[in-house]
Fold these 2 entries.
Entry 1:
Amino acid sequence: MDVFGDLFRGVRAHGSLFGSSALSPPWALHFVDGAPLTLCTVLGGAGWIVPEHGPPEPLRERDTVVVRGPKTFTFVDEVGTRAEPVACGELCAAPEEGGTRHRRGWTDGGAAATLITGAYPVRGEISRRLLDALPVVLRVDAGGTGDAVLDHLAAEAAVDTPGQQVVLDRLLDWMLVCTLREWFDRPGGEPPAWWAAQRDPVIGHALRLLHAEPAAPWTVAALADRTGVSRSTLAKRFADLVGEPPLTYLTRWRMALAADLLLERDTATVADIAHEVGYADPFGFSAAFKRVRGTNPSDFRQHAGSRG
């Protein structure tokens, strides 16, 4: 598993709200759910994404934007529109229609724009590391790898067939992956360090090893041996490209894994979780967890579980 794939695994569409809205001006759709991630694409026409706090972002035909919550945002025909905002959220969903969770569309025979949206839940601490790498609003211009996905989304949304929600979920995942890849790779962009580091033949290999075998008894020497370079070369190159030493990265990765396991496996003991992420001693694990997370594993489980 590569770093991006690992971080993306909790950002998946599972019964996510999906919408296809045909709009004629003036319009103002206020997305009030504050979803962790919302993907928006205009199939035809144009409009503006207006975040709750931040400058408006134009959305032209086949452009795609991803909006990071929890703040709300509005899709308008033009900045300063005279339209009264229409709240779009859970109450707009119509799961009884075909068994899918479409948002109700606002349709007009003279529609000037068709907006496709997908609201994503984000599960777990692992995927929060992906969200932390994103701005509140990011936009990818039309003409990229996601264009082919849009055609499939439009076709699937136009019919009501068994398994439609599964198809829409997978298409939304595909679209989101294409969008994030292009945004990270945009000319002049500043992607997170781990994104660029994945492509280095040595450090990319090292990152894949740490993600594939987080519980292994890693040392810098062992990692250097597996990647075919000297210990000093690995340590310097890793720090230069990733921004921290390899074992510091490993500890933070293990603690993210542990945080999710503590919530997913409520019958597992702290010792069980410690062993699964590479610690033979639960006391050493608890000390590392508190150092990274600011609280011990038992308190984290109790407080995070009560919030959920």
Entry 2:
Amino acid sequence: MTELFNTLKDRRASKPDVRHPEKQKRPDTPVLKKPDWIRVKAPMGAEFAKTQKIMTEGNLTTVCEEAGCPNIGECWTKKHATMMIMGDTCTRACAFCNVRTGKPNPLDADEPRRVGLAVAEMGLEHVVITSVDRDDLEDGGAAHFAETIRSIREQAPNATIEILTPDFLRKGDVANIVIDAKPDVFNHNLETVPRLYLSIRPGSRYYHSLKLLDQVKQRDPNQFTKSGIMVGLGETKEEVMQVMDDMRSAGIDFLTIGQYLQPTRKHAAIDRFVTPEEFKTYETIARSKGFLMVSASPLTRSSYHAGEDFAQLREAREKMNAKK
């Protein structure tokens, strides 16, 4: 992995050294040794370099880099990158997240155009667009999301679009701006069980996030909704099953469950590594509760294999409708 991290380090060279000033005074947490099933290879090659070149020349940010995703080597080699709009600095400081915290720069009005251009240049069939939280903006960035969706539709009309949004907490009904832009998949992650929100996701509210996803279904029933959680933070099986039930009550179509991986000693500690067998059990339970699509594995992330998963999601709905 050394070559991979050195490559990505060059992309961050001009950025401040302290990514998480709010975490510096926290005591170090223990780092558990990763089991064999967590280890990943870092494939490199022409397609990886091409993806990186497009991101660099387009002055675009990816969550693959900023969040330290373990799947970046595989995804970039396959010409898949999750673009992160509205900058690389988040206004919140979640205990699990490796994205930089601080005061963001003003929005870049040209960013939606460049994102659309990058999607076209990469020839993507399915694209995932996420963002930092922008509590400093009156609409939380909703209009910027909508403009990005429109730009992709214009420059890459055959691409399907999946968005992973903030919660737009205390911003009124601005989420409707994004919903009405009609992405193919509206994703917002609940991240963890309600009991752990205060320590893991203190700037967010579990039931507000759940309500946001329900709002999507109420306004546009045909829009696919998606949400995910991390495990290994100290949650119980019963709590995970309750989250599944809450999601189904909100009409969520697609559930992702992945292992929490600790970015640094200043982040939340891993309680344990959930085994592949346990992930299989979670997948079985989730499917029995009526989700159209479930991805549950140690390395599952919101946008991992998103294109292939979207195809299966659409097929599952078609089969369900055919039975009615």
